[in-house]
Specification:
The protein is α/β, with parallel strands linked by helices. The protein is 42% helix and 14% strand. It contains 17 helices and 14 strands. Helix 14 crosses helix 15.
């Protein structure tokens, strides 16, 4: 499978390759969202309602893409977002993502639901890495992971607040994701033909030891949490605003609140001392029919700009989307599916290709706008169609 141009020139091309490589259960987990997937679809479509206002006859021989996020200088205006079950998509999973981020000069955010150890993931990248926290497994498991992340050199903690229960991801049910992750061989039988139709993925899955417990969710007295038990573990260990006190005491560094889509929650995060927030609908995977992240970004920016770092996540498939979100007030963006399709298609080589597609897109867009630097972007470069919320 060649990732060289002209075959692979868009993120949609990487999505097509990932679809061909993965069985339905795994691709559906990566590609799907909750219920009718209204929020997922709108997250991509809403970018079409943000229009550019270019400045022509402006020379931009070179463009500065650098940003500073939580005190860390990055060469790119986007970070690689936390993706759970990455090892299921490709055996290298989080190791490949961390290495690709470091190679590109940007940051990687490791999910609690990682198939690789906190320490091993950090060792792959010379650049900054951040840790994303769920309370799955309870406070004891979380405190253990926090201590390991701090000792390994992670620079910030991203606390996800939008998962009191797992969303209703109907593709996972139809495609047998639970059965694939479980240990009952008979439950897998209806899905075997589709799995056998993807021999390359199956060979990698088997050589990697098949389904593994999560090495970073170590429940005191019980050991690593089994992957199939995650939904129940999340529901029994919901994060609340009061938890931030002990989380901050255990961490001792910058904390970012991930999953903010209302002005009230943005202000509450600031009131609780958050050094950053992520405007995010969890890629539409939790509560469906929430407005797309880009629609609520203007209101959040108006409420808390200058009081905390504002990161944006949701529906980003082109470099121009990154430009639009930053022009609307975000400090930087998170890529999720935008790099995960590449990871699923070809491991680190696929992620490298995704990053280069975004980099080239961003440079081209900046030059077409007549803007020499990410730091120069502001609302004067865009106009918004009706439907973007200020509250």
């Amino acid at each position: 499978m060649s990732l060289a141009a002209p075959r692979v020139v868009t993120i949609s091309d990487l999505r097509r390759l990932a679809r061909a490589r993965l069985p339905d259960a795994v691709f559906g987990y990566l590609d799907g969202a909750a219920d009718d997937e209204v929020t997922l679809k709108d997250s991509e479509a809403a970018f079409r309602e943000v229009y550019f206002k270019p400045r022509f006859a402006v020379a931009t021989p070179a463009c500065d893409l650098s940003v500073t996020v939580l005190g860390q200088k990055l060469d790119l205006p986007f970070l690689l977002a936390p993706i759970g079950y990455s090892r299921l998509m490709h055996p290298m999973g989080e190791l490949a993502a961390s290495a690709a981020a470091g190679k590109a000069g940007t940051a990687y955010i490791l999910s609690t639901m990682s198939g690789h150890r906190i320490e091993d993931v950090k060792a792959q990248s010379p650049g900054p890495t951040f840790y994303q926290l769920y309370l799955a497994g309870g406070r004891g498991a979380a405190e253990g992971a926090i201590a390991r992340a701090r000792a390994a050199g992670y620079k910030a903690l991203f606390v996800t607040i939008d998962t009191p229960v797992a969303g209703n991801r109907e593709r996972d049910v139809r495609n047998g994701m639970k059965e694939l992750m479980g240990k009952n061989p008979f439950a897998k039988l209806p899905y075997i033909p589709n799995i056998l139709a993807h021999p390359r993925w199956l060979a990698g899955f088997m050589m990697d030891g098949m389904t593994r417990p999560f090495p970073n969710i170590v429940v005191p007295g019980k050991g690593p949490l089994e992957a199939i038990d995650v939904a129940q573990a999340l529901e029994s260990a919901q994060v609340s605003w009061t938890d931030l006190k002990w989380i901050r005491e255990a961490w001792g560094g910058p904390i970012v609140i991930k999953g903010v889509i209302t002005v009230d929650d943005a202000r509450r995060a600031v009131d609780h001392g958050a050094e950053g927030i992520v405007v995010s609908t969890h890629a539409g995977r939790q509560l469906d029919t929430c407005p797309a992240s880009i629609r609520v970004l203007p209101g959040v920016v108006e409420a808390v700009k200058g009081k905390t770092t504002i990161l944006f996540d949701g529906g980003i498939r082109r470099g121009s989307h990154v430009i639009k979100a930053i022009a609307m007030g975000a400090d930087a963006c998170l890529l999720g599916r935008g790099y995960a399709y590449g990871m699923a298609a070809a491991g680190q080589a696929g992620i490298d290709r995704a990053v280069e597609i975004f980099r080239a897109d961003i440079i081209r867009t900046l030059k077409l706008l007549g803007c020499a630097s990410i730091s120069d972007l502001d609302e004067s470069y865009i106009s918004l169609k009706h439907g973007f919320r200020a509250d």
